[in-house]
# Entry
Amino acid sequence: MTWEHSDRLKVTLPSDCEIVMTRTFDAPAALVFEAWTTPEHVRQSWGLRAEDMVVCEIDLRVGGTWRFVTRDGDGNEIAFRGEYREIVAPTRLVNTEIFEMFPDNGSLITSLFEERDGRTTLTSTCVYESKEVRDMVASSMEHGVDVSMDRLEELLATLVQR
# Structure
């Protein structure tokens, strides 16, 4: 299964337990990696536009943890957390991700930042424990990831100019 959003985000399901998301940005890998891993930038790019990020904690080291909490207009909070397993800046990041509402359904995410001619392709491969968990996540994540990637692209455009 594959779906695309505005010819920018490509999402595939290559196996029963995987989701692969790919998007190319007009920025060097070091800048995309920085925007992906620095709290001040993540606050500007992660989540839906109508949500406020109320917690953005990043301890970027192997064994370090991260936690993001957003709040919608009705006061509902949505929290994600994880642990960094591998960091090879600016080309590779491996971390766990747990949606705190469903703490038993975590994933392992490998993000690759591949630069070519000043453009960076970000490929994130999410591996889940089962097809059922993967399908549950896939059915609800596409819009949020698409919006976050658009917001990241907008942020990168301002960072490239600095």
Notes: Residues 2-156 form a domain with the Alpha-D-Glucose-1,6-Bisphosphate; Chain A, domain 4 fold (CATH 3.30.530.20). Helices lie at 29-37, 39-45, 131-160. Strands lie at 2-5, 9-12, 18-25, 52-58, 65-71, 77-88, 92-99, 107-116, 119-128. The CA atoms of residues 35 and 41 lie 5 Å apart.
